[in-house]
Amino acid sequence: MITFKPFFGLANRMRAMNSAVALARDLNTRIKIVWVKDNGLNANFSDLFNIPSFNDIEIYEPTFGFYNLPYTMRYGWYMNMIKNVLRIKFDKVFIFNKLKMEKIKPDSIKKYNKIFITSYSSDFYDCEFDSDLFIPVPKLMYEINELSSRCGNQTYGIHIRKQDNKESSHYSPTELFEKKIDVIIKEDNDARFYLATDSIKDKDFLVQKYGERIITNYFDTSRSSPAGIGNAVIDMFVLSRTKKIIGSYWSSFSEVAAMLGKVELEQVKKM
After folding, report:
1. Pick from 91, 80, 254: which is nearest to 162 by CA?
2. Is 56 within 8 Å of 31 (Cβ atoms)?
3. Is residue 131 part of a domain?
4. Is there a contact between 204 and 181 (Cβ–Cβ < 8 Å)?
5. Would you put residue 197 in left (φ > 0), alpha (ψ -120 to 50) or beta?
6. Which one, of 20, 12, 60, lies nearest residue 40 by Cα?
7. Domain that holds residue 58
């Protein structure tokens, strides 16, 4: 059995969980997903998605205890303590909390009965994205369907990441999205755009400039509340239903939205 704890934000967790489930299935074993509410994502899995109805997956949402401790700190003594405790319970432990990580090979770990993995990324195991793992709860799906119905068939997705991502903000400034929108309109006069961004300033500016071509919502998408994370899910899934996504560099949110809908993603980046 694999016990897997994803961490960081929504898209990071979704990608990482997808890879962990694929690994478990390739090993023909069950998986327990430990989904912890924290500063990176203050919402339970069940606040956002239906619990998967697959017999090989369990969702565990602890409110306190050892699993609720952060596994992302760089302090050697702290991580050594975490690893030592985990090794008492598990036969094999993988803690992926750095930018580069090893690939897990199923043949090398199939001899272990109890495996623990924690990661913010999908890089530890390559696989296809299974959107059936992430079906929004009914109240979110209703909003997704309502917004999607306003978009129509000629709507492009725009995702501008700003507040908590320095790389995205630096390499994908708003003016690059303006230029891309102008090019699309020149080629397709009927084009409309669903705008998802954590910047109210950018929303105001683009709505003022492009008027009714921009479809967006002024709701809170902060990580500090279940409602804010739920609104981020709405944005992600509406983006996934557009014909093409124009996204920010270094943003897993844009990438997961594209994988959910199997749509083309173009990340704008200044040289």
Report:
1. 254
2. yes
3. no
4. no
5. beta
6. 12
7. 2-126
Give CA–CA dist 172/268, Å, rounded: 6
H/E stretch holding 244 reads: strand 244-248
In a domain, 41, yes or no: yes
User: Which pLDDT does position 74 carry in this prediction?
Assistant: 62
Of 85, 103, 126, which residue constitutes the final position of a domain? 126
User: For residue 30, what are the contacts with CB-CB under 8 A and spacing of at least 6?
Assistant: 1, 2, 24, 56, 57, 58
pLDDT at residue 163 in the model: 73
Residues of the chain scoring pLDDT < 70: 73-75, 165
* pLDDT in the model for residue 227: 92
Question: DSSP label at 38?
Answer: B
**Cα-atom radius of gyration of the chain, to the nearest Å?**
20
For 211-253, write each residue's pLDDT tens digit: 999 999 988 888 788 899 999 999 999 999 999 999 999 899 9
Check whether residue 68 and residue 159 sit in a common domain.
no
